[in-house]
Amino acid sequence: MRRAIVFGATGGIGQAICTELAQSGWSLYLHCHTKWQEACQLSQKLMQQYPEQDFIPIRLSFLAENSDLSKFVQDLLPLNAAVFAQGITDYHFVNGQEMNQVDDMIKVNLTTPIKLAGLLEPLLTKNDFSRIVFLGSVYGKQASALEAVYSATKAGLTAFSQGYAREVASANLTVNVVAPGAVDTAMNAMISAEDMSKVKEEIPAGRLARGSDVSYWVNVLLDKRSSYLTGQTIYVSGGWLI
Question: Is residue 188's pLDDT more than 90?
């Protein structure tokens, strides 16, 4: 049985990823932090649709201490893949951001995923193939004003994946980043309708991405046949900012 853990499973993109992977035959851990009820509901829905697969809701704060991260990983069943779809942003000028918010953004988006990747590695490499996919951002390539720290965390994921992929390639573990452009999710609800309309006008494809536009590429990267693609960042942006 192929099993993946999807971090941030209750988010807009996370839910799309869970749905697509379930359709492809994956059993899943559905991770959340605060949205436990949503994780349980999504798990139950997928179990009804795919009764021969397992769907297990699981909770972890990405602000947790190192010892809590280690314990979390120790309690997991065997895994073939880990997908990091969690993330937070803060739409402010740098000099107007709270220092604690900067710390939290770096920890949730970059340092905790890096730590978890290292902790998960022995579990993943027990299999004949395994996968790690991080959700980056087009802003990791062309950083955005008012989201400078967020952009830095996403650029960090790209750099980390390039280096880490070289470390684990011989163990049949691939490490890649799927980097969306503007996606129609709750994270972008903080942007005014006027500003969002301007963004849409800049996108050559003429629309925001849907969750399924992103989940498709995650599914492709988790396929056993994608073993020769590693250390890459795939920009799913409709032609915007690339």
Answer: no
Residue among 126, 153, 119, 125 nearest 139 (CA): 153
The answer to whether 69 touches 119, Cβ cutoff 8 Å, is yes
**pTM of the full structure:** 0.94
Average pLDDT over residues 62-89: 97
**pLDDT bracket for residue 204 (50, 70, 90):** confident
Given 29, 139, 150, 235, which residue is catalytic?
Answer: 150
Q: Is 150 marked active-site?
A: yes
29, β-bridge pairs: 5, 56
Query: How many residues are present in the chain?
Result: 242
Q: Which domains does the chain have, with CATH numbers?
A: 3-236 (3.40.50.720)
Instruction: Give the position of tokens 């629309």.
Output: 207
Distances (CA, A) of 34 to 49, 58, 59, 70, 123: 25, 11, 8, 20, 26
